[in-house]
Amino acid sequence: MYLVQAAALDPDGSAFGAISGGLVVSYSPEYGLRSTNEALLSDLATLTGGTIEPAAQELFAPLGQRVGQVREISLPLIWLALILLPFDIALRRLFMRPRDIAVMVPRRKVASAPTLNADQRMERLRAARSRAQRAAVERPPQPAAVPVETPAPPSDDPPPPPPPAPAPADSVANLLAAKQRRKR
């Protein structure tokens, strides 16, 4: 039900006329009373194996169907939460990081390589450096592919400055280039 009231006022603010109106909207048809569709009910009963208007004793009789069992799991979950709570508090209060935990966990010992004295290690490093230098000299670095650029339309802006020239190659750059070639 909707009710509207309107009043007309003169310039002094006193009412010189009023009108009222209302509108009633009925409920949607789904809430209306309908007669029972006996044909539909009997068709549904035959399709589903049911009966029409069963006796009161039949309504609560056991059906003989197998029914699953409900198992309460809230108590075991509460116990689990209570057991894990102190660990959670300890981890948060002690600010333990994964690397701190890794220190506490014992590790299996792996058979280590034979230990070398300082002179042997330096000799191995020098040999590796000379191998890398020879590989860099034998295979000069391959130039990178240059993309083909389409000419840009003329503009009033000055062209951007060219990129800086690469620094002269040194032994570190040669080693890096050799390492990258070896990965390919």
Question: How would you briefly describe this protein structure?
Answer:
With 184 residues, this protein is mostly helical. It has helices at 38-48, 56-59, 74-94, 98-104, 118-138, 171-183, and strands at residues 2-9, 15-23. The chain has a domain at 74-104.
Give an overview in words.
With 184 residues, the chain is mostly helical. The protein has a domain at 74-104. 42% of the residues lie in helices and 9% in strands. The protein is built from six helices and two strands; from the N terminus they run E-E-H-H-H-H-H-H. The protein has helices at 38-48, 56-59, 74-94, 98-104, 118-138, 171-183; strands spanning 2-9, 15-23. Strands 1-2 form a two-stranded antiparallel sheet. A hairpin with a 5-residue loop joins strand 1 (2-9) and strand 2 (15-23). Helix 5 (118-138) packs across helix 6. The longest helix is centred in the middle third of the chain and has 21 residues, at 74-94. The mean pLDDT is 80.
